[in-house]
Amino acid sequence: MINNKRYYSTNIPSGSGAPVKSNNFNSYLAGLFEGDGHIWIQNPDASDKKKHNPRFCITFGLKNEPLAKKLLDILESGFIRYKTKDNACVLVVSPVVGLKKIVYLINGELRTPKIHQLYKLIDWLNKHHNTNIEKLPLKDGSLANDSWLSGFIDADGSFSVQHTKVENNAKKRKISCRLRIEQRMLDPVTGNSYLDVLTNIAKFLNCSLLTRIQKSTDNEYYTLTASSKISTEILVNYLDRYSLFSSKYLDYKDWREIVLLILENKHYTEKGLTKTDSARSTMNRNRTYFNWDHLNKLSA
């Protein structure tokens, strides 16, 4: 059953009927970082005499520059670096005040091998800036109870709507909605596996976890595709509560409309077919208009 209630605030009053949440932004930022981020720390044995602060970085496709700028405003530290050849931009935080804020926000919210990058940053702060920050362990609570997965989907997920005919020259059609998530099997820095977290995501979404090898690089990836009625209903209930904030939010809104038609068995009506083709024509690379009003709901 679809739950139409929506919660965006990071501090919901206890009398509102919703559980009090104080870390929605924290877990969202953690998921976003674990999908598309990294922390660079200068090698202490480097010959370069000039010492550089660590850099906390999250990479975005250039069309998601508004989200990068919004996060920069919230963090109040850092800058945006542009990689025009890659059609990308990078949120970079390097001032100590900003690095401390990042640690405060995501420490205890991470779920993947990238926690070791955070631990190295904590070691650096404790050593060079007289802090005594505790390294909190991997979070193992339910994915249903915070925004981590929405951040991870914003980084590594993609929504699609398929509308195909089946059998040669048959009139029968097939319409389906999918969320696909892909992540390397092994962390390139530590060699640790992403199996546990991807298995948890697959279990939460009631779908299978598969593997594939990228022929051009021989890199191995975990992949999962959520497309069944059960899976898509779980996703709608989750993402209506814990919003996406990249341009994928707009794809999700179109995707959601078709999911609801499928759940109500109205997708093969004339109206349903028209909506399906309309959604397909504006999603992902076909999107030319972007409304970023949903960023007004993002705050720490």
TrEMBL record:
GO BP term, pick one: intron homing
Keyword Nuclease attributed: yes
Location(s), subcellular: Membrane; Mitochondrion
Cited InterPro entries: Homing_endonucl, LAGLIDADG_dom, LAGLIDADG_Endonuclease
Domain of life the protein comes from: Eukaryota
GO molecular function: endonuclease activity; hydrolase activity
Record-annotated Homing endonuclease LAGLIDADG domain positions: 29-122, 149-259
Gene Ontology cellular component list: membrane; mitochondrion
Keywords, ordered alphabetically: Endonuclease, Hydrolase, Intron homing, Membrane, Mitochondrion, Nuclease, Transmembrane, Transmembrane helix
Predominant location category: membrane
Family membership: In the C-terminal section; belongs to the LAGLIDADG endonuclease family.
Name this polypeptide is given: LAGLIDADG endonuclease
Organism (species): Fusarium pseudograminearum (Wheat and barley crown-rot fungus)
